[in-house]
């Protein structure tokens, strides 16, 4: 049986599903608390960095469309050790990120089912998402289309109605207030520290882009479809994030902003929309499920790639007749369930540190993509320039601009105490994965040392 391939629409849906999530629905409160009126600019700058990374991933994935995408390209350039570290780093980051999403799903569902234990809801969601991913790509993309459409539509509707209020059309008790922006423009340098302090959170919000390289290898006519589809994805996400945050600051009084609460909750309350709590809860649940679904996809594809290069147990390299890596999906699902259940056993702060580490690992992966791209382009030009059917712009400057921007963002974490736990735990996990390469006999003897 011929394996199904992603269409352009499927690709867009999967990419949007993986990128759009808590980075706007919840983390925007923390960003606004730090950056104030400069938060929209911070999201725009983060989006530009994300676009650089995506252009590198597309170029390499089209020139050499191999399973594992950027992990395989990094291994080709920097050797087997970094390929091993890069692959397991991505998978670990994805699983840790998924465990926070599954916990969120359980918490959202508790609004309607308050008597059901959280661990049982987590178990049910883990099974549901695993079963969805066991479908072929056609079935997977259909499920993701429904989930992703809900959360994207919610942001679009918010932008439309929020925009109407900003232009003077009253809705409920909402009124526009641009004083925050006037004050920021009057003393621009005062907001620089807050803007820089928010960048780590913002880059976390954009780190779902790894799915683009992984999905490109399973997309029909990738060299034509992927670049145009990715432009739609990146432009849409950056625009929606930037405008949505601008409207939140415009419509939501400063005293109503709570870093631990979604600003959309407060906005819907001001709009006086009937059943606002239930509506928003449904949107947040679908957003978390959508992110969870696409993250299981990307994590399982990376694990499958590592099994094929003998850097993971061979059993997870098994596919079914439809080309679905069923063993990798089951393993990712089981580990996901385990980490989610640990959230109810471990002290809250300890588990929170572990989850925050997923963002640090994702940004280290961005560093790897930028550095890999610089050397990859040189290598492919020397060996097979005809394969460069898509080229990231402004080479080689963009590669290093992106690399050092992400590096500075990571190194700035110690300046902001709230970000230290994620920085330290992420660094520890990276060190453990690096050491594991020399202790676990999974290396491919045919690969250069």
List the helices and strands and how they pair.
Blueprint: H1 8-19, H2 22-25, H3 28-35, H4 39-63, H5 70-78, H6 80-109, H7 118-133, H8 137-166, H9 179-186, H10 192-205, H11 210-216, H12 222-251, H13 263-271, H14 276-308, H15 326-342, H16 348-383, H17 397-411, H18 420-439
Pfam families: AA_permease
Keywords: Membrane, Transmembrane, Transmembrane helix, Transport
Membrane topology: Multi-pass membrane protein
Folded structure, characterized:
The protein is mainly alpha-helical and 449 residues long. The chain has one domain: Up-down Bundle (Amino acid/polyamine transporter I). Helices cover 72% and strands 0% of the residues. The protein contains 18 helices and no strands. It has helices at 8-19, 22-25, 28-35, 39-63, 70-78, 80-109, 118-133, 137-166, 179-186, 192-205, 210-216, 222-251, 263-271, 276-308, 326-342, 348-383, 397-411, 420-439. Helix 4 packs across helix 16 and helix 4 packs across helix 17. The radius of gyration is 21 Å and the shape is globular. It starts with 7 loop residues before the first helix and ends in a 10-residue tail after the last helix. The chain crosses the membrane at residues 12-32, 38-58, 78-96, 116-134, 146-171, 191-212, 232-253, 273-292, 324-345, 351-376, 397-416, 422-440. Residues 11-420 form the Amino acid permease/ SLC12A domain. InterPro entries: AA-permease/SLC12A_dom.
